[in-house]
Design brief:
Blueprint (H helix, E strand, L loop, with lengths): L21 E7 L2 E2 L3 E3 L11 H4 L3 E3 L2 E5 L5 E4 L1 H14 L7 H14 L12 E10 L12 E10 L10 E5 L17 H16 L4 E5 L7 E4 L3 E6 L2 E4 L9 H12 L3 E4 L12 E6 L3 E10 L4 E4 L8 H14 L10 E4 L3
Parallel strand pairs: 9-10, 9-16, 13-14
Antiparallel strand pairs: 1-2, 1-3, 1-8, 4-7, 5-6, 5-7, 6-18, 7-8, 10-11, 12-13, 12-15, 15-16, 16-17
Helix pairs in contact: 2-3, 5-6
The structure holds pyridoxal-5'-phosphate.
């Protein structure tokens, strides 16, 4: 993106656009090194690096928002740092200290300030932190050396239809994560497992696949890149499961639901209970809270019609507005969730 080119901020998709800089840090000889600022988009990697063969790769997702007051905010960034440490421990990688994670996140946003979409555009600057094992390995052992990178790219809404009910599908032949138990870590390999289902869903006109618990295929787990919640008789229900990723968005929406006076239940949700819910949605940093209008269960050859009139439900709409309002500095940040980045 040359300096004089103009970005059409309101029509961005959720895809990669080259920005000016990324930040990197390498763990070697038992310690993290200096933060490097880099304008190269590629990395030089040994062909036997452990990330390539044995999947020692973890990542995160976060957004920086230009607010109504002109300030730039990150949302619950320490939670991303904490989760990445859990993912690292899960597959025997080196955890990144929270201070390093946050410092690099702030720095990469400051360095790419001209790519932060303006307030009102509906777009934001997406941060993609990733960590890879880089030690050459042929035997199955964790690496000794790790590279941590954060790059950014301006993005529009994840679903180009915007805030409208989408359709998702359940396919029992797929799992979203490798073995039972890895689903709670943000590991790239889990996504590889889920790609078959997502590709099938898209080929059949659905926006996403909705995965069931891998053990019994009886309870709802989550969508490919997003958690699931539903509204049933004024209660916010969301799956309690060992095989879903602990979404920071979901955690925040549960708090906002309580603020609104709703009861929150985290429990196993049998598929058939979809007959009794008034609203359903997928939630995550990318999806925010995207309403689900229809759920097709292929195995049972049944379609659950959640949205009767084709519009988002009132509770999902209110939750969406409250979350966006806090992220954009339109509403008071009563839970202290945002961090303002100075100098941008
Ligand atoms: C990242 C992710 C989510 C959403 O988490 P947020 O913290 O809300 O962005 C949900 N499910 C999976 C599988 C994910 O990887």
């Amino acid at each position: 993106m040359a300096m004089n080119e103009k970005i059409d901020w309101s029509n961005l998709s959720f895809s990669y656009m080259k920005t000016d800089y990324n930040v990197r840090c390498t763990f070697r000889d038992g310690k993290w090194g200096e933060i490097e600022v880099c304008s190269d988009e590629s990395i030089s990697l040994h062909m036997a690096a452990s990330c390539l063969h044995y999947g020692q790769e973890i990542f995160e997702g976060q957004k920086a928002f230009r607010g109504k007051d002109g300030k730039v905010r990150l949302f619950r960034i320490e939670e991303n740092a904490k989760r990445m440490q859990n993912s690292a421990k899960g597959i025997k990688m080196e955890p990144i200290p929270t201070e390093l994670f946050v410092e690099m996140a702030k720095k990469v946003v400051e360095l790419n300030a001209r790519f932060i979409p303006p307030y009102g555009s509906g777009s934001s600057l997406y941060l993609r932190p990733l960590e890879i094992g880089i030690t050459p390995r042929v035997g199955v052992n964790p690496a000794d050396e790790y590279m941590f990178i954060i790059f950014v790219t301006p993005v529009g809404p994840y679903f180009k239809e915007g805030f409208k009910p989408t359709k998702v599908a359940i396919y029992r032949e797929f799992d979203r994560a490798a073995p039972l138990g890895t689903g709670k870590w943000k590991v790239g390999g889990n996504y590889a497992c889920g790609m078959g289902a997502t590709a099938k869903a898209k080929a059949n006109g659905f926006s996403a696949a909705l995965f069931l618990d891998p053990k019994e295929k009886k309870y709802l787990d989550e969508c490919g890149p997003a958690n699931f919640f539903a509204i049933k008789d004024g209660v916010y229900i969301t799956p309690k499961s060992e095989s879903i990723l602990p979404s920071i968005t979901n955690m925040s929406l549960q708090q906002l639901a309580e603020d609104m006076g709703l009861k929150v239940e985290r429990r196993p949700i049998p598929v058939e209970e979809l007959d009794e819910v008034q609203e359903a949605a997928e939630c995550g940093t990318a999806a925010v809270a995207t309403p689900i209008g229809e759920i097709y269960d292929e195995g049972m050859n049944k379609t659950y019609k959640i949205s009767k009139d084709g519009n988002p439900g009132p509770v999902t709409t209110e939750l969406y507005n409250r979350l966006r309002g806090i992220q954009l500095g339109e509403l008071p940040d009563t839970h202290n969730w945002t961090m303002v980045i100075e100098n941008v």
